[in-house]
């Protein structure tokens, strides 16, 4: 019974990770400007990778590789938002204008 619950939790975590990674990839392809893309990449990709790594750590059980997986999870939670912030700040300092639907309608 416990093993079935563990397997179901692993499948749910990895499935959630795949879902949020897919949402992140779709957002990066479909959103109009660097700021929106950095936001979706930061938020959903971090969550997707976090859920997938949590599933992997749960699947491995109590091993030394599990500690490395948890450390990698912490590293991703720290670096993904920091990198997205750095990209957005560099775009802002380079005078990249945010996308505005009203400006697009005026240009038509």
State the main characteristics.
108 residues, mainly alpha, 4 helices, 86% helix, elongated
Describe this structure in words.
There is one protein chain. This protein is mainly alpha-helical. It has one domain. Helices cover 86% and strands 0% of the residues. It contains four helices and no strands. The protein has helices at 2-30, 34-60, 64-93, 101-107. Helix 2 packs antiparallel against helix 3 (64-93). The longest helix has 30 residues, at 64-93. The mean pLDDT is 90.
Secondary structure blueprint with pairings:
Blueprint lengths: L1 H29 L3 H27 L3 H30 L7 H7 L1
Structure summarized in a few sentences:
The chain is mainly alpha-helical and 108 residues long.
Q: What is the chains' assembly state?
A: single chain
Number of strands: 0
Low-pLDDT ranges: none
Span between termini? 62 Å
The helix count comes to 4
Class by SSE composition: mainly alpha
The description of the largest β-sheet is: none
The share of residues in extended strands comes to under 5%
Q: What order do the SSEs take from the amino end to the carboxyl end, as H and E?
A: HHHH
Gross geometry:
elongated
Which bin fits the share of residues in helices? over 70%
Rounded to an integer in angstroms, the radius of gyration calculated over CA atoms is 18 Å
How many domains make up the coordinates? 1
* Average of per-residue pLDDT values: 90
